[in-house]
Amino acid sequence: MIDPGDDPALEAALQSLSLVTRPPNQAFTQRVLAALPTDQPSNDSRSHSMKIFRNKAVLAIAVIIVLGGVGAILAATLSAPRGAAASVQTLAVQRGDLSATVLSSGALQPAADLNLTFSAAGTVAQLFVH
After folding, report:
1. Alpha-carbon gap, residue 121 to 98, rounded angstroms
2. What span, in angstroms and rounded, lies between the C-alpha atoms of 91 and 85?
């Protein structure tokens, strides 16, 4: 028989096993006890090495993504044409008239069409505007 000692989880597992109607099986009891969680870290070196490998893989992917982003920014910065700066013309300030001529062709369209109707007909004789 297995002695649970001071472990309440082991004692509860053994008590639940004793409720089974068939006679206790030593191999079955050992498998149940092995499946119970323990507070001690596992000595399974394979799962530990898989965790390290997984962490290294995630780190490697993150480094590749960061380096790709930095490379893309550098490529965009370095490949910009150097002589493409806009030419700027400056003059000294002077008083004078400003004139500009715009040549264009096409049809003019009003912003709005209004139909005006008046209640009285006649001719405007004088307009009082200052």
Report:
1. 44
2. 19
Structure tokens at 29: 């009891």
pTM of the model: 0.29
Q: What angle do CA 37, 41, 42 make, to 5 degrees?
A: 80
Do residues 4 and 10 make contact, with C-beta atoms less than 8 angstroms apart? yes
CA dihedral sign of residues 104, 105, 111, 112 = positive
Residue 65: band (very low, low, confident or very high) from pLDDT cuts 50, 70, 90: very high
Joined tokens for residue 126: 């004088």
Task: For residue 26, give the amino acid letter.
Answer: Q
> Binning pLDDT at 50, 70 and 90, where does residue 21 land?
very low
Position with higher pLDDT, 50 vs 95:
95
The span from the CA of 123 to the CA of 12, in Å, is: 113
Question: Tokens representing 122?
Answer: 């006649």
